[in-house]
Amino acid sequence: MYQILYQGGHGSHGPRAQALANVTPGAQCGDIATTPARPVQGLTTLAFWGHGDSFQLCNKSAREIHEVIKEWKAVNPGLGTVEIITCNARHCTTGDSFANQLKHGIGWRSSLKGLTIKALPTTVGGKRNAWSILLAETIRNSWVYITAPGATDSLLMEANSLIQYEKMPSGGLRSFNGDIAMRADKVVREHPMRQWTMNYGYMNTLRAHLGVV
């Protein structure tokens, strides 16, 4: 079984979390703010989908996310994997990435000892001075995960704009509202020499791109 906790409120991640749940057998999802830990028969994986950076996920620090996981683990002893679905969880400019903080915060005496943490990949050069963004839409259930190096996120935003906007015949730009995966495939083919990376696909392939931290 698979439980997704998403960040609700303004710009809710709920529709995307539900789209992922719809293509994941045995999956349930709920707002992290209103879904208390409860026994779920056969629960093995807890996923978080919300805003993220090197300091927080779903508006919670690594320590606060630990507490959420502990609550679910206490009533679901078979829980062994946590998945982080967000931007920037693997990257940082100072200190350590959020995903690493989450992993390193589990001590050998912790009730979470042995827990597997999974997240989307780092950019080619690694976690330091690098950025990432996850875009997803629920009409075609497509997504793209972009990474780029840099002391600032300017290169990432340049790559992001290649997905978010397309040129009109007049030469102007308009927002792109189609299949993000198809758009990403086109962009990658048009830019063989690049520093940024793009992973892309559909909701039924998103979890396959998560790697162990």
Radius of gyration: 18 Å
Largest sheet: 6 strands, mixed
Give the quaternary arrangement of the chains. single chain
- Sequence of secondary-structure elements: EHEEHEHEEEHEEHEHE
- Which stretches of 5+ consecutive residues score pLDDT under 50? none
What do these coordinates show?
The structure is a single chain. This protein has 213 residues and is an alpha/beta fold. 26% of the residues lie in helices and 25% in strands. The protein is built from six helices and eleven strands. The chain has helices at residues 14-22, 62-75, 98-104, 154-164, 180-190, 203-206, and strands at residues 2-6, 27-31, 45-49, 81-85, 116-119, 130-136, 142-149, 165-167, 173-175, 197-202, 211-212. It has a six-stranded mixed beta sheet with strand order 2-1-3-4-5-11, with helices on both faces. Strands 6-7-10 form a three-stranded antiparallel beta sheet. It has a two-stranded antiparallel ribbon with strand order 8-9. Strand 4, helix 3 and strand 5 (116-119) form a beta-alpha-beta unit. Helix 2 packs across helix 3. The longest helix has 14 residues, at 62-75. It is globular. The protein starts with a strand and ends with a strand. The model has no long low-confidence stretch (mean pLDDT 96).
Tell me briefly what this model is:
The chain is an alpha/beta fold and 213 residues long. The chain is 26% helix and 25% strand.
